[in-house]
Each structure stands twice: as structure tokens, then as C-alpha cells.
């Protein structure tokens, strides 16, 4: 180990611990989360020629939750975009709250509302969903979402699952460690969104 004259080797210990934690966070990002997920795809989904979908903000669970709803929505959008099935537009949370009180009626959505979204956003389908579970430790995220045609309300794809990863880390309340904890949570959520989309398109 490279040292600096006059500085005790033990002074390097916090940095080494932080580097070790960082290696764990980034190294485990490629591992799969345990999941219990189901999916469904309409046999007619290919006939709808979906070019762009609108992702509305994922709705929170019915109970109080610390889930980062906006971040989960954005990471799901990235995962859907990477699938290359269609382009993805995200409706910002303030816009959804101000303009679309109909979202409070989920899962029941009127056909006239879907047509309105198609006209306002230039999309052929809408992603409607909920965060069904969230827990920071053990890291757990449940997602349920449908991709619905704005033409006739047909559900083209659907996913419902709960993912868990025991290997993300509980870190003590120091500034650097809190930052690492945030990164590890984001890595887990990103993995879940990627796996949810992969589940969606698997046949």
C-alpha cells in the first residue's frame, strides 16, 4: 500500500472501508434480484403498431411508504426505452396531478381519457401502474403495470411482481456512507425495472 510519510497507516482505514463498500455496491449490480413475477402479453399486441408510449407516474401503495416514486418511474422509463419496443415519453408528476384527476380512479380508466392522452401526447399506448411494495431492507420492490392501447383500451402487456435483494447494504449514518446507501438503492431499483421489462417481453 502506498503511504505518505508522517501519516499513520490506520488513517487510511476509513477510505479503505469506503472503497470496499463501493466495490460491493457496484460489483453486485450485475446480480439478479430474487423475484416472484408474472407477465401477460396479448396475442394481438403486434397488430397495434405501437411507436410511442406515455408513462404516467407510478401510483404509490395504499399505505404510507418511503418509496422514491419519481425515481422508480424514471428508471422504469429508461428500462422500457432500452427494450427498443417503442419510444417512451414520461408525464411529469406535477402535470399528472394538475391535469389528470382520472388517475385517482385506477385501475378503471375511461376510453375517453385514453383518447385524450393519445391526442395530447401523440402516443399509441399508455403505461399505467402501481408500486405495490417497497422496503429499504431487505431491499424489496413490487411493481404492477399495464401497457394499454389508447385506441380501444386493450391491455397489450402486463407485469405484476415483487423483487427482493438481500445483499444490499445497511450503512451507518455518515455522509459518505449515506451516499453509498443511496447509490445501492438506486442500483437495486434499476435492476428491478430492467428485470420487470425483460419479464414483460419474454414469451
How is this structure best described in words?
- The chain contains five helices and six strands.
- The protein has 203 residues and is α/β, with parallel strands linked by helices.
- It has one domain (32-201): 3-Layer(aba) Sandwich (Rossmann fold), CATH 3.40.50.
- Helix 2 (69-82) packs across helix 5.
- The radius of gyration is 20 Å and the shape is globular.
Q: What tags apply to this protein structure?
A:
single chain, 203 residues, alpha/beta, Rossmann fold, six-stranded mixed sheet, 5 helices
Average residue-wise pLDDT: 77
Amino- and carboxy-terminal Cα gap: 51 Å
* CATH class wording: Alpha Beta
Radius of gyration: 20 Å
The CATH topology turns out to be Rossmann fold
- Identify the overall geometry: globular
Total of domains:
1
Level-2 CATH architecture: 3-Layer(aba) Sandwich
> Helix and strand string, N-terminal first?
HEEHEHHEEEH
Q: What is the CATH superfamily?
A: ABC-type transport auxiliary lipoprotein component
Strand percent estimate: 15-25%
Largest sheet: 6 strands, mixed
Determine the structural class based on helices, strands and strand pairing. Answer: alpha/beta
Q: How many β-strands, per DSSP? A: 6
Amino acid at each position: 500500500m502506498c503511504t505518505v510519510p508522517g501519516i499513520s497507516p490506520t488513517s487510511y482505514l476509513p477510505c479503505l472501508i469506503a472503497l470496499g463498500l463501493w466495490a460491493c455496491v457496484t460489483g453486485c449490480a450485475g446480480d439478479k434480484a430474487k423475484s416472484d413475477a408474472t407477465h401477460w402479453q396479448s396475442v394481438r399486441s403486434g397488430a397495434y403498431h405501437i411507436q410511442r408510449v406515455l408513462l404516467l407516474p407510478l401510483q404509490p401503495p395504499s399505505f404510507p411508504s418511503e418509496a422514491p416514486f419519481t425515481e422508480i418511474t424514471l428508471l422504469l422509463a429508461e428500462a422500457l426505452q432500452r427494450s427498443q419496443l417503442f419510444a417512451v415519453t414520461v408525464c411529469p408528476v406535477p402535470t399528472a396531478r394538475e391535469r389528470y384527476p382520472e388517475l385517482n380512479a385506477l385501475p378503471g380508466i375511461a376510453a375517453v381519457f385514453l383518447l385524450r392522452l393519445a391526442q395530447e401526447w401523440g402516443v399509441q399506448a399508455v403505461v399505467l401502474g402501481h408500486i405495490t411494495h417497497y422496503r429499504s431492507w431487505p431491499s424489496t420492490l413490487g411493481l404492477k403495470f399495464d401497457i394499454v392501447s389508447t385506441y380501444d383500451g386493450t391491455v397489450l402487456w402486463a407485469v405484476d411482481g415483487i423483487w427482493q435483494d438481500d445483499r444490499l447494504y445497511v450503512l451507518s449514518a455518515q455522509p459518505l456512507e449515506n451516499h453509498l446507501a443511496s447509490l445501492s438503492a438506486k442500483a437495486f431499483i434499476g435492476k428491478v425495472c430492467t428485470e420487470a421489462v425483460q419479464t414483460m417481453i419474454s414469451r
